[in-house]
Amino acid sequence: ITLWSKDEQYGKALEDYEKALEIRLSIFGTNHSDIARSYYGLGDSYSNNGQHDKSIKNHEKALKIRLDIFGTNHSDIAQSYYGLGDSYYYNDQYDKAIENYEKELKINLDIYGTNNSI
């Protein structure tokens, strides 16, 4: 899936992420880290495709699942806030982008400290 994104074949990446999500949902149900990973990938792919509203919705789904599973202070939560920040940024919603980037930064500082090159 990531190879499609690197090759800028975002439509194919979207198709593969949707298939992966469907398979994972049938195996794991709705509240599993692999489901969140699929929503995160869909969010990135929609963003790369210029569909920022869909990107935001998928990143929000990934974040909700990850918060349910991991709590508030986990690297996957930081990743979700970063993805949301990017989606809001590219959708010209700069205040929301900054808000999410700041949440991502705080979590990473809490986890890794200030002397780590993350």
TrEMBL record:
Keyword Repeat, does the record have it? yes
Which sections of the protein are TPR repeats? 36-69, 78-111
Disulfide bond recorded as keyword: no
Specify the species.
Reticulomyxa filosa
PANTHER family, per database record: AAA+ ATPASE DOMAIN-CONTAINING PROTEIN, TETRATRICOPEPTIDE REPEAT PROTEIN (AFU_ORTHOLOGUE AFUA_6G03870)
**Protein name in the entry:** Uncharacterized protein
Q: Kindly list any coiled-coil regions of this protein.
A: none
Q: Which InterPro entries does this one have?
A: TPR-like_helical_dom_sf (IPR011990), TPR_rpt (IPR019734)
Which UniProt keywords are listed? Repeat, TPR repeat
